[in-house]
Automatic annotation (TrEMBL):
Gene3D superfamilies: Trypsin-like serine proteases. It is found in: Secreted. CDD domains: Tryp_SPc (cd00190). The keyword Glycoprotein applies. Keywords: Disulfide bond, Glycoprotein, Immunity, Innate immunity, Secreted, Signal. This is Uncharacterized protein. GO terms for cellular component: extracellular region. It comes from Aedes aegypti (Yellowfever mosquito). One of its GO terms (molecular function) is serine-type endopeptidase activity. Belongs to the peptidase S1 family. CLIP subfamily. One of its GO terms (biological process) is innate immune response.
Length: 294
């Protein structure tokens, strides 16, 4: 039997595709599933761009953003939302380890679909927290390995306002800036207002180490699993919420947002010119996949 050139080329392409699928990480496959869902369901995929100049966030712009809430002492039906996270699957939130405990308590709920905590919205839904899994090498007194997973008691239902984010799994970054989503703080313990986005400049590790200098939470300096990012508007995490994602969006071509880092540590508060330290997600892909999609 003789193969034509066209059939041979088709066979080679098919073999390459099969190999690519076999080599694909589970997080990459899941990302593709989430993108496909967004393409055929109500979403903001056709929005021309998520311009940083437009700080107002609409429902569906960042459908992975999660608010972690703790019950208030005076009113069990009310919650203090003290930290951020990112929905990365039907049942897991990715966040910073240090932001999963307040007064030695794990969060009671995770709120998804919200763009303003002061307003009721049909897209908003609260999910009870089942457990918190911190990285085994995390130590509270240090800023290293500051990453955790929050498991929800039940799987989420996707909607225009609720959809998992993709994970950036490469140590290489072909971009020079990222975006974080945060709320302005009224003080160190309270937040108010609408969810906003702020641009982040990716800084060189050596510059960051020089600016931080000796630091008790960074006794060994910056490590490869950390990123040094500067808020271009000079706002720091004391004016937002810890655990917030540093992300890059590819709209409308890919209809996907990738979380690249997680807010971990800031040197000081109040419009500081010093950069903040983020946990690099790509350094923990194996650990994340083993728990979320085992």
């Amino acid at each position: 039997m003789h193969l034509t050139i066209s059939s041979l080329l088709f066979a080679l392409v098919l073999v390459a595709w099969v190999r690519a699928q076999a080599d694909q990480r589970i997080s990459q496959a899941k990302c593709e599933d989430y993108r496909k869902w967004a393409k055929i369901n109500p979403s903001n995929c056709n929005r021309p761009s998520l311009l940083i100049q437009d700080i107002n966030i609409r429902v569906g712009d960042y459908p992975h953003v999660a608010f972690m809430g703790w019950k208030t002492e005076n009113d069990p039906s009310a919650y203090n939302f003290l930290s951020f996270g990112s929905l990365i699957s039907e049942q897991y939130i990715l966040t910073a380890a240090h932001s999963t405990r307040f007064e030695q308590k794990k969060p009671d709920i995770v709120r998804l679909g919200a763009v303003d905590l002061n307003q009721e919205d049909q897209h908003v839904k609260d999910y009870e927290v089942s457990e918190v899994i911190t990285h085994p090498n995390y130590t509270a007194r240090l800023a290293y390995n500051d990453i955790a997973l929050v498991r929800l008691r039940e799987p989420v239902s996707f909607s225009i306002g609720i959809r998992p984010v993709c994970l950036w799994d490469s140590l290489q970054m072909n971009f020079t800036w990222l975006v974080t989503t945060a709320l302005d703080r009224t003080d160190h313990y309270s937040t108010s207002g609408q969810l906003e986005k702020f641009s982040l400049d990716i800084m060189d590790k050596s510059v960051c180490e020089q600016q931080y200098g000796p630091n008790r939470r960074l006794p060994d300096g910056m490590k490869d699993h950390q990123l040094c990012l500067l808020h271009l508007d000079q706002k720091d995490i004391c004016q937002g919420i810890s655990g917030s994602p540093a992300q890059i969006s590819f709209y409308p071509k890919k209809c996907a947002t990738y979380v690249v880092g997680i807010v971990s540590h800031a040197r000081r508060c109040g419009g500081s010119p010093f950069p903040d330290i983020y946990t690099r997600v790509a350094s923990y892909i194996d650990w994340i996949e083993a728990i979320v999609w085992s």
